[in-house]
Amino acid sequence: MAPRGRLSLTALNVTGLVIVMTANSRMASAVHIMSFVAYAGDEGTTSEAIAKSLQTNPVLQTNPVVVRKILKLLEREGLVALRQGRHGGVGLRRPASRITLGQIYKAVESETGVFAMRSQVHEGCAVACAMKRRLGPIFNAANDAVEQALSKTSLAELVRGVG
């Protein structure tokens, strides 16, 4: 039973959890997209074909507009080359062996990483001020660990098990 005046777990607002889940599905979608492009080989593929492949996954169902947004993020980081027009499409900018999951993560996730503190806290709340000060270094270390772990796997290693 929750102490008087505090919310019980069932009454908590889970908005933060939803935001984290959204960020994780964006990373999963980006890895799927990059894997699909790598698997397509030198001829590349189209955003429509990628979106269609994502539609078969009930967790990652993503429409072509979202796929193009993720592709733009990947292009900005130099991971894919986008071709416009009637014969447009997408291909890898460099070999899959030289692209890591860490690079994909950096391309599509926010600068704050998976764990982030609110930028503003109520200065009159001792707990909020202490958490900002004490959790910041812990969250930074956790974000660094996530990026390091993802950087150990190349896109080529991931795609090697397909088909």
Number of domains as seen in the coordinates? 1
Helix content: 40-55%
Question: Strand content of the residues, in percent?
Answer: under 5%
Q: Label the CATH architecture.
A: Orthogonal Bundle
Q: Write the CATH homologous superfamily.
A: Winged helix-like DNA-binding domain superfamily/Winged helix DNA-binding domain
CATH topology: Arc Repressor Mutant, subunit A
Sheet/helix structural class: mainly alpha
CATH top level is Mainly Alpha
Please describe the biggest sheet, giving its number of strands, its sense, and whether it closes into a barrel: 2 strands, antiparallel
Give me the strand/helix succession.
HHHEEHHH
Q: State the shape.
A: elongated
C-alpha end-to-end distance: 51 Å
Per DSSP E runs of 2 or more residues, the count of β-strands stands at 2
Arithmetic mean of pLDDT: 79
Q: In DSSP terms, counting alpha (H) and pi (I) runs of 4 or more, how many helices? A: 6
Q: What is the strand arrangement across the widest sheet?
A: 1-2
Low-confidence stretches: 1-23
Q: What structural keywords apply?
A:
single chain, 163 residues, mainly alpha, Arc Repressor Mutant, subunit A, two-stranded antiparallel ribbon, elongated
